[in-house]
Amino acid sequence: PKFYILRTSWVIGDGKNFVRTMMSLAKKDISATVVHDQIGRLTFTSELVRAINHLLVKNPAYGTYNVSNDGDSASWADITHEIFKCLGRDDLKVTDTTTAEYFAGKEGIAPRPLQSTLNLSKIQATDFKPTNWQEELKNYINNQ
Strands 43-44, 11-12: parallel, antiparallel or unpaired by DSSP? Predict the structure, then answer.
């Protein structure tokens, strides 16, 4: 009965991840084809650490909390535009595709929900204030 479960999505941190993949494409002058029908918000690992620390220090009611960065929901294609913009690579094209088109003919692909935006109201009710994913994206890119 005494536990915290954190639900999250679209995690970005050390190691291989979507942002680093798009940064690598930009460095190689490669435009990207990216799904535009999956919608959510990025969750930076630093935000997860802040949320865990907040729960352990504030000790709110035990249970399940959604954690992601805050801000407007966006598609992976929208996020790619932001990445290229942060890198000063507005010259690179982002071509929209659907999830079905992108994975057509590929086997062993785990199904992905089209809507991944998490409701943050429960953790926000504990006075946790998630940071905006677009601001965290800029910080992440500037520190790579």
Answer: parallel
